[in-house]
Amino acid sequence: MRQSDTILITGASGMIGSALLRKLQEESYPHVLAPPHAELDLRNTKLTGEYFARHKPDRVFHLAARVGGIHANHKYPGQFIYDNTVMQANVFEAARKSGVRKLLFPGSACTYPRLAAQPVQEKELMNGLIEPTNIAYAAAKINGIIMAQSYAREYGMHMIIPMPTNTYGIGDNFNPEASHVIPALMQRFHDAKQKLLPEVVLWGSGSPLREFIYVDDVAAAFIFLMQNYDLHDIINIGTMQEISINDLAGKIAEVVGYTGKIVLDVTKPDGTPRKVLDSSRLFDLGWKPQITLEEGLKRMYENHFINQSPIL
Ligand SMILES: NC(=O)c1ccc[n+]([C@@H]2O[C@H](COP(=O)([O-])OP(=O)(O)OC[C@H]3O[C@@H](n4cnc5c(N)ncnc54)[C@H](OP(=O)(O)O)[C@@H]3O)[C@@H](O)[C@H]2O)c1
To answer: How many domains does the chain have?
Structure first.
């Protein structure tokens, strides 16, 4: 990626998009386009095509998507599959027609089969049934992955497809209808601290193992891959560090300063016992994450609850 390149980020107001925009600004890339959703709705084929034809970006990070936790996925599967499928089809086709040199499209860890062998290697994609609670989102992602690879094969486009693990950090979604586990727990511990509640109840045994990566590390990995990776084979982005939900809750409570009890409601179901990506292909290329879970949680809590500073 050269300083003279015109770089387009779709979804630049989102969690990962805004981290990427901050990083490209820090690295002094002068020609970065970041159209807001209100200005460019990527579900609109005509507008998307016109935008690409007018600006002729060299590099595209297609990060706009409809994203959410189990609740949002369960309640709005039609919107998840429609918006994501149409957006990526519009963006890939507009990129093809306008001659984009390289395009990054993220898949996601939750695109892998529910019972994939752990740690999950890239070859596990489509090697089993998808988790039913997020099937519409994952099906749209799989469509996007195959579409990107098909465009690479037929039209010779440079398409790269990283698969980030669960991402958290500044700009995360705290809306209870859409939030993932870290912002949801952070909000609950914060509220419990404010209300002086003696305990917070967690669903399940607390034993399932999960992996989390800080958003600035994902943005850094995207830039690294844009510069150093030229295959259209998917590639995992994770930390290869696992933590149980119980230990995660303990760390979040500590960052928040909640000193009450954490009680496990073992009558409630656990999710999959272990979900961690094998990121050794990326590590072997020379990239590693830099931000520990403790540091990332601290930055996130301070930004959202203490400084209340804008993301950009
Ligand atoms: N978060 C994770 O844990 C994770 C993990 C793996 C992969 N990913 C992938 O990484 C990408 C970015 O995720 P994120 O967490 O940063 O998502 P996010 O915070 O929800 O941001 C999504 C972005 O897409 C924009 N957008 C949504 N619908 C749009 C439309 N119709 N037209 C134009 N823009 C639209 C949103 O703008 P408005 O807010 O204005 O609507 C927002 O800027 C997604 O492809 C996601 O699947 C995320």
So the answer is: 1
